[in-house]
Amino acid sequence: MRQLKRLSKVLTTLLLPLSSHAYQVLITDEDVSRQTCSGMYAKAGLFTRGVRDPAIEVVFGASSMGQVALVIYEWRDARYLGASQASSANNTLDAADGLDPDELNDRAATGDNDGSASLDSPGALTLRALTDEPAQRTYICTGAANAAGLCEESQLGQFIVSAPANTSTSIYTRAVQFGGMISNSGPFIYNITKTGFYCVGTVPLSSSSAPAAGYQDAPASDEPADLALRASYGPATVFTGVVDFQNVFKGNLPASEYPKVAFYCVLTFLYSFVGIGWGALCVKNRRDLLPIQHYVSGTIVFLIFEMFVLWSYTAYLNTSSNIAVARFLLVFVAMVNAARNSASFFLLLITCMGFSVVKPSLGPVMNKARILAVIHFIFGVLYSVGTVVIPLESAGIFIFFFIIPLALSLTAFMMWIMYSLNSTIADLTARKQTFKKLMFTRLYRILIGAIIVIASFFVISSVSFSSRLDDNYAPDTWQTRWFLLDGWLGSLYFIVFAAIAFVWRPTPKNRLLAMSEELAQDDDGAESYAVTSLLRNRPDDRDAESIGKDAEAHSLVRNDETVFDIGEEDLSDSDEASSGRHKDRPPSYQDRDHQV
């Protein structure tokens, strides 16, 4: 019954007539829901566009009863909340309540008491300071606090502000009254003039230090009549409300998450530009495309689709609040992300094996790579969907059934990729294929650079998140936390993929690169090449008229067709060389190295 009543109050609060397109947070009289904080942009920035004046609006539900102290402030001004009082005065007041001062403060800090404050007894609100000051502080202006000179009578029921003279602060506080008391229940609007991390706090108050006679015999239920009876006695304060963070942009996302909308939009256009450039090169060199370049083309199309899905998902969350649709889109995004990871590892694996450049076909190994990619995709989907459907705190040991298989398939991919890349480089080195080796050496450097960046960000993220339990962690990192969690990894992936695509881009020499072997450039290799050339290209019947030196020279010229140009010579020059028209111009360095 209690849960149903609580749910009813929550639904009633959510239906309050608030401004649309804003980040909304529910607040109640429960300890865990009395305070909420969020970043606020005062003006447009790189990833935020300004369309309205920012403000914070607080609205309480019509069913709220009692009295509440409300405060809105920028986090940096938290040190001005409350006022210190002499330790002797604290001890006297606390003794009057029958509690040891340290015990009382510990209970208040841990939520062991009911968390409400009496307007006549400041003991329940004598909490440990929010600042680094070791002294105890009183935060609510009560009758006793007023008598002690900590606040003015006009401030009764409000938070005490102890800022130095001539110091302006961002603190806004009001005494909110519900029920049969004088109406002062809002809505309360707080205008934002400076970008910062703003908090809204509420503390339930009571009108007397002790319940009225007969309160102990009052029924302990949540029926409306009982709530009214308890409110009339004084100590009971029950409220629900909504804090509406209206940022400079319109949307439901908090300010710490909103930059993702623009970020994924930028990535979508960047991948589109890469796709346009890649497509233009493919059309220009369509007769010389390699099989590996078709795989790259498909991957680019899929990456554009994935970034568009992520962009649409974050944009939907910013404009709509349908939980069922949002959950479905989250699962779909997780599946698309798992497919992206599998396709990327598969493409990288067959590239490192030398597919289309060193080997025209991978044979049965290609099927094994495809099977591993499918397995990794299945494990990735299970992990993504499992972490979405099953809350992490309630998953228990079952979470390992999602993590371990994905970790094993990822490890298999990584080890196979590095082994294949090292084997390909070693093979090209042994066969003195300098140009092809340079391509895979560049790939190796790109991957090593990515590993270094990942390791560096891992250290930075670990250092950053190690202080996540500190009070200042959220205020200090709310503007950059999205980049540490998602932004840098998406940026790194784009840079690495674009670099690899540039190395394997379509060129007029693709077919020459795939079908030819580079001539050795050292003396031993040149001598071996000359001998095998003479044996392989002996004059046949059509060359019978060529004898002596003419036959030998003719053979060498024909064999020069198998040498692909490492320099900047274009395909037309290669055609001229193969047709024999290069006799009228100075010989290239291949000709000079191998003339007899």
Automatic annotation (TrEMBL):
Residues 34-90, 133-207 form the PTM1-like N-terminal domain. One of its GO terms (cellular component) is cytosol. It comes from the Eukaryota. It is a multi-pass membrane protein. Keywords: Membrane, Signal, Transmembrane, Transmembrane helix. Residues 540-561 have a biased composition (Basic and acidic residues). Residues 1-22 form the signal peptide. Residues 259-510 form the GOST seven transmembrane domain. The keyword Membrane applies. PANTHER family: GH17801P, LUNG SEVEN TRANSMEMBRANE RECEPTOR. This is DOMON domain-containing protein.
